[in-house]
Write a structure and sequence with these properties.
The protein folds into two domains: 77-231, Alpha-Beta Plaits (2-Layer Sandwich), CATH 3.30.70.270; 249-392, DNA polymerase, Y-family, little finger domain (Dna Ligase, domain 1). It contains 14 helices and twelve strands. It has helices at residues 10-17, 42-46, 56-65, 75-90, 119-134, 146-158, 171-180, 191-199, 205-209, 213-219, 222-231, 262-282, 320-334, 369-382, and strands at residues 2-7, 27-30, 37-40, 69-72, 95-100, 103-107, 138-143, 165-167, 249-259, 285-295, 306-317, 341-353. It has a five-stranded mixed β-sheet with strand order 5-6-1-7-8. Strands 9-12-10-11 form a four-stranded antiparallel β-sheet, covered by helices on one side. The chain starts with a strand and ends in a 39-residue tail after the last helix. The model has no long low-confidence stretch (mean pLDDT 89). Residues 2-190 form the UmuC domain. Keywords: DNA damage, DNA repair, SOS mutagenesis, SOS response.
Length: 421
């Protein structure tokens, strides 16, 4: 059996944990640079406001009129509360797989028998414990396969008769829920694939579950076949016990304010270079090539400008200093006077596992692993950018715009909640 624990409106719910004054108010959270709506709490959804990915400036007056509380994305807070939620859920199963920032699968094994208190009571206990200890509202769905656990979780949120908990442990319940679930609500079935299934007369999860898996594979893919088999109780989904190393690593972001200065653009690229270097070392890889780009907005009046630069390292590296050195060579091609730069980024490619890479006999590496490890350890313990390269700068006018940012209650000393009693 598998249990899927999923936080309700994760980002908006996190905003309410340490701020009781907004717990009974509609709350929406914005994306990077306060561009679009990315999350809305249940109250906002019931009011019909806070539709996802709508530009904020288009609905600003509507939100103000409805008394909606606006928040910028507070990633530091969300990540910390997510970890607390996962740690709490992990106590209720022998194995856990964190699927995303707001959901995790609990694996009870193929031959798992119902606990003494029953699956429903166990799910309710998990839900109540997360609320009591983390103050995040979650829904719990339990089923014999990961896909059915996803189905159960959807039922716990959206199907009448379920209030935050759903268990598909018998044929009648499975049939009842699958008949009420649109095929596009099944895990892995998107709108485009759903349209093709609709054309074949498959509109519900129940109709998909009753199709011949081998025929579905011929018409679509083995992935859709596995979905059909999982809807019928056959476990086909599995997780890698060791995360596969990435083949490419990128860091890109739009600016909070347009950049027109040479040094500011260089500092922004240096920040991205530092970010990708840390990720590279974390997965114990070295890079053989690197790409950089800088661009303005395609909507600018002066025309669209996109500049890029490619560099191949003589000796693959994961030393931040070597990666930063490339930026000086790239700036002559990337920077153009008079352009209002909107976005830039750095990408590392041609990645190799550090311990297995065969270096050139005549070109020795000048990496300093001990220095890089020292920097990474300090930043891991005391916070990002505690120690950083000077090229990144210290005052960033172009940093991400977060005008409605809430305090980082759990990760910044200055923001620790103060209680007077």
């Amino acid at each position: 059996m598998f249990a899927l624990c999923d936080a309700n409106s994760m980002y908006a719910s996190c905003e309410k944990v340490f701020d009781p004054s907004i717990r009974n108010k509609p709350v929406v959270v914005l994306t990077n640079n306060d561009g679009c709506i990315c999350a809305a709490c249940g109250i906002a959804k019931r009011m019909g406001v806070g539709k996802k990915f709508v530009p904020y400036f288009q609905v600003k007056k509507e939100l103000e009129a409805a008394g909606v509380v606006i928040r910028s994305s507070n990633y530091e807070l969300y990540a910390d509360l997510s970890q607390r939620m996962m740690d709490t859920c992990a106590r209720f199963a022998p194995d856990i797989n964190v699927y995303s920032i707001d959901e995790c699968f609990l694996n009870y094994g193929k031959e798992a028998t119902a606990p003494q208190e029953g699956w429903d009571n166990l799910a309710s206990t998990i839900r109540k414990t997360v609320w009591r200890e983390v103050r995040l509202p979650i829904c719990v769905g339990i089923g014999p396969t990961p896909t059915l656990a996803k189905v159960a979780n959807h039922a716990a949120k959206n199907v009448s008769g379920f209030t935050g908990v759903a268990v598909l442990d018998n044929e009648d319940t499975r049939k009842h829920v699958l008949k009420q679930l649109a095929v596009t609500d099944v895990w892995g079935i998107g709108m485009r694939l759903g349209a093709k299934l609709n054309a074949l007369g498959i509109h519900t999860a129940w109709e998909l579950a009753n199709r011949d898996p081998s025929q579905i594979r011929k018409a679509f893919s083995i992935i859709v076949e596995n979905t059909v088999r999982e809807l019928n109780g056959e476990v086909r989904h599995c997780w890698e016990t060791v995360r596969v190393a990435k083949k490419e690593i990128y860091s890109t972001r739009s600016f909070g304010n347009r950049v027109t200065d040479y040094d500011e653009l260089r500092a922004a690229l240096a920040g991205h270079a530092e970010t990708v270097s840390v990720k590279l070392r974390k997965q114990k890889s070295v890079t053989g090539s690197m790409t950089l780009f800088a661009t303005n907005s395609p909507h600018d009046n002066g025309g669209y400008v996109r500049r890029s630069f490619f560099h191949r390292f003589t000796v693959p590296t994961n030393d931040t200093r070597n990666i930063l050195n490339v930026i000086d060579s790239a700036m002559s091609q990337l920077f153009q006077s008079g352009v209002y730069y909107y976005k830039c980024g750095v990408g590392l490619m041609d990645l190799h596992e550090q311990g297995l890479f065969q270096y050139d006999l005549f070109n020795s590496s000048n990496d300093n692993p001990r220095l890089m490890a020292c920097m990474d350890n300090i930043n891991s313990r005391y916070g990002r950018s505690t120690v950083q390269m000077a090229a990144k700068g210290f005052e960033q006018r172009f940093s991400m715009k977060r005008a409605f940012l809430s305090p980082q209650y759990t990760t910044q000393w200055r923001d620790i909640p103060k209680i007077k009693c």
